[in-house]
Design goal:
globular; single chain; 11 strands; two-stranded antiparallel sheet; TIM Barrel; about 20% strand; alpha/beta
């Protein structure tokens, strides 16, 4: 496969946010853009089937409303504010117009209508005016993009699963193997630094799969092709990182 180039090496995790600018807000993404960084963001479906930029399955932590995102209609979400600010919960179609052409990593969160999320997201990514990659913890979502949009750069998010974050032993064994990588054939793996030396990760990296690390919180970190950071400002905003281009 040919090599593609990410325009920047450093991506701000949920935007460049702090105690005044909330995570996954338009202000956080514009702040990252102003400093020359890319940004990572999270998306889900709302109750009307629109693609909304939000991390948690429940709205309560960031808005005060106790309700599942995918059960809440757009009209209700649009009147909410993030934290104690005037920032609204962004919708992906509107956000992409605001931040273009900054580089983006778009994480599709697992939700009941995950196929619909894929179908609604793909045309928005295709129309975007900047470099964009999709990623997910859910192998089904990454595989969907492999089958339906092989030209979109795709990443598989991985962690080391245990009986607390994945009680089902059979599923845990499957996820802690190379099977999800084989199933999705990602162009990059997005993992915590502690997973870099896992045998199945090393096998993928040696075969040409690129490496994205998250969430890096200090300047003392291991080298990677792409770095998702939070809580500090990297000294170098503009740096090249290569990933395999989507060709299959």
């Amino acid at each position: 496969m040919k090599k593609a180039v990410f325009p920047v090496k450093y991506y701000a995790h949920r935007g460049l946010h702090d105690d005044k600018i909330p995570e996954n807000s338009t202000g956080a993404f514009l702040a990252a853009k102003e400093k020359g960084f890319g940004a990572e963001l999270d998306i889900l479906l709302d109750g009307d089937g629109n693609v909304v930029v939000f991390h948690d399955s429940n709205l309560k932590r960031m808005t005060g409303l106790d309700g599942l995102v995918w059960e809440t209609p757009r009209a209700q979400i649009e009147v909410l504010r993030l934290g104690n600010t005037t920032e609204k919960v962004p919708y992906l179609d509107e956000l992409l117009k605001e931040v273009s052409p900054m580089p983006l990593l778009v994480e599709l969160k697992t939700c009941p209508r995950w196929k619909t999320l894929c179908e609604k997201t793909l045309p928005l990514l295709r129309k975007y005016g900047g470099h964009v990659a999709m990623e997910s913890f859910d192998p089904r979502i990454v595989r969907w993009f492999k089958n339906h949009a092989p030209d979109i750069t795709r990443g598989l998010l991985l962690v080391q699963y245990n009986d607390r974050n994945m009680p089902n032993a059979m599923k845990r064994r499957m996820m802690n193997s190379g099977y999800p990588i084989w199933l999705t054939k990602p162009h990059y793996l997005s993992i915590p630094e502690g997973c870099i030396d896992l045998p199945y990760v090393q096998k993928a990296l040696k075969s040409g799969t690129a490496l994205c690390t998250w969430t890096i919180r200090s300047k003392d970190h291991r080298e990677a092709d792409v770095i998702t950071f939070e809580g500090f400002l990297p000294e170098v905003a503009e740096a090249d990182a290569t990933v395999t281009e989507a060709t299959e």
